[in-house]
């Protein structure tokens, strides 16, 4: 197997892990937050934070490294419209993701404390949950568009 194909495989696998972990984590966190169970919220939010550290963070690093290497090897300038838009959307999704990670860490801590103290979650948890969702939806849509652009490489005009 040549270097290009190895990088392409790494790029595809890491993109699947990145988006798949994000979607799976969001699914479980969304429903745990609506369950009314502080115990469920404590467990799920702790595991979502762990998934971000174990899967999302490494793949968020691998993606641009392999992507830039593939673009260079294929001879695509970063100013190629579909590629430039992909990069911009990836950066946008990352800009949404960084505060989401902070919110998840804070929500996990609040849920753990509430569960330990057998107390309700503070109102701040509900506010953080709303922010988490508001940031998550556009980030996910951006990544879906990146997938489209990576696969189709449309001839865009800016």
CA-CA gap between termini: 36 Å
Q: Which overall shape is indicated by the principal axes computed on the Cα atoms? A: elongated
Mean pLDDT: 95
Poorly predicted ranges: none
Largest sheet: none
Level of helix content?
Answer: over 70%
Q: How big a fraction of the residues is strand? A: under 5%
Radius of gyration: 18 Å
Number of helices: 4
The SSE order reads: HHHH
Tally the beta strands. 0
Give the structural class.
mainly alpha
Provide keyphrases for this structure:
158 residues; mainly alpha; 4 helices; 0% strand; elongated
Secondary-structure blueprint:
Layout (H helix, E strand, L loop, with lengths): L2 H31 L4 H37 L6 H37 L5 H30 L6
Helix pairs in contact: 1-2, 1-4, 2-3, 3-4
Please explain how this structure is put together.
The structure is a single chain. With 158 residues, the protein is an all-alpha fold. The chain is 85% helix and 0% strand. The protein has 4 helices and no strands. The protein has helices spanning 3-33, 38-74, 81-117, 123-152. The longest helix has 37 residues, at 38-74. It is elongated and about 60 Å long. The mean pLDDT is 95.
């Amino acid at each position: 197997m040549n270097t290009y194909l190895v990088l392409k495989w790494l790029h595809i696998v890491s993109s699947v892990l990145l988006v798949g972990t994000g979607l799976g984590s969001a699914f479980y966190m969304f429903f745990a937050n609506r369950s009314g169970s502080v115990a469920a919220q404590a467990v799920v939010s702790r595991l979502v934070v762990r998934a971000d550290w174990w899967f999302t963070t490494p793949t968020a690093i691998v993606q641009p490294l392999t992507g830039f290497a593939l673009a260079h090897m294929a001879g695509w300038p970063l100013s190629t419209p579909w590629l430039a838009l992909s990069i911009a959307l990836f950066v946008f999704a990352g800009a949404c993701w960084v505060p989401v990670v902070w919110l998840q860490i804070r929500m996990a801590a609040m849920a753990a404390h509430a569960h330990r103290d057998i107390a309700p979650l503070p109102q701040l948890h509900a506010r953080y949950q709303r922010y988490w969702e508001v940031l998550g939806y556009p980030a996910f849509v951006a990544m879906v568009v990146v997938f489209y652009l990576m696969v189709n490489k449309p001839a865009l005009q800016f």
